[in-house]
Amino acid sequence: MKQACYTIESNLPLAPGVYRMCLVGDTSAITAGGQFVDVAIGGFFLRRPIAVQKWDSRSMHIVYKVVGKGTEVMSRMTPGQSLDVLTGLGNGFDAGACKASALIVSGGLGASPVFSLAKSLVEAGRKVEVIMGFNSAADVILADEFKALGASVDVVTMDGSCGLKGLVTDAMPSDGYDYFYTCGPKVMMKAVCAKASAPGEASLEERMGCGCGICYGCTCHTASGPKRVCADGPVFKKEEIIW
Q: How is the chain split into domains, by residue range?
């Protein structure tokens, strides 16, 4: 974990109520897709935990949804403003667990945490199939960016306004992959884990107080006992999770 000051380079809408912010600063503590940062917002006691979509040596991108007063304030921030951010939080996805072909299944904002994972897998020569679920065409984010990586992408919408109509599980293949990764609503991930024909990992989400394992406010139940989503996760292996 590392605390530093970052400068906002851009803060632009991706979909209704969804924004992507580019922060310039020290990214050395970020080591894997699926990790998150904790953003301090003036006037609010608790930081906001937000997953990292992608990063390089000078900057990182975070994608967030306006769900309360804190993220509403974030959506109005402009380039040049500074933010106090904790980086390198949580344990990310294990890209090395996939040996040949990976299936990535995301729902809504869950497309952001798996983006860097997909990039790592493609760069390692793995075949990557991405299934992305959204409510409607208006909510679709990052699909073109996943395609630009070289991944195979299937979009699924609840209302059928883009891609296949239905649930992400309707688009899941019965085989053809040796490892899967998923991030999105809990009910979706539970269904994905139940249908998957290979081992895999899921990124959980819980309300967080400290974001670094001190307060135990985000504890979840696992096969090996209580675990902290922020410090022991947010990524857990399929067999660990008690839904």
A: 2-89, 95-203, 205-243
Instruction: Supply the pLDDT for residue 1.
Output: 86
Q: What would the mean pLDDT of 92-118 be, rounded to a whole number?
A: 98
Exposure string over 87-111, b if 16+ CB within 10 A, otherwise e: bbbbbbbbbeebeebbbbbbbbbbb
DSSP track, 91-131: B---GGG-SSEEEEEEEGGGGTTTHHHHHHHHHTT-EEEEE
| CATH number at 95-203 | 3.40.50.80
CATH C-level class of 2-89:
mainly beta
Are 105 and 198 in contact, with CB atoms under 8 Å apart? no
Please give the Cα distance from 47 to 49 (Å, whole number).
6
pLDDT-derived band of residue 217, with 50, 70 and 90 as boundaries?
Answer: confident
Decide: 80 and 10 in contact? Cβ < 8 Å.
no
Question: Where do we find the tokens 């947010």?
Answer: 234
pLDDT tens digit string along 9-25? 999 999 999 999 999 99
Mean pLDDT of 30-43: 96
Q: Please give the average per-residue pLDDT across 108-118, as a whole number.
A: 98
Q: Once rounded to an integer, what is the mean pLDDT over residues 49-75?
A: 97
DSSP result, 43-84: T-SS-EEEEEEEE-SSEEEEEEE--SHHHHHHHT--TT-EEE
Query: pTM to 2 decimals?
Result: 0.96
Domain range 205-243, its CATH number among 2.10.240.10, 3.90.226.10, 3.30.413.10, 3.40.50.2000: 2.10.240.10
How far is the C-alpha of 20 from the C-alpha of 66, rounded, in Å?
A: 11
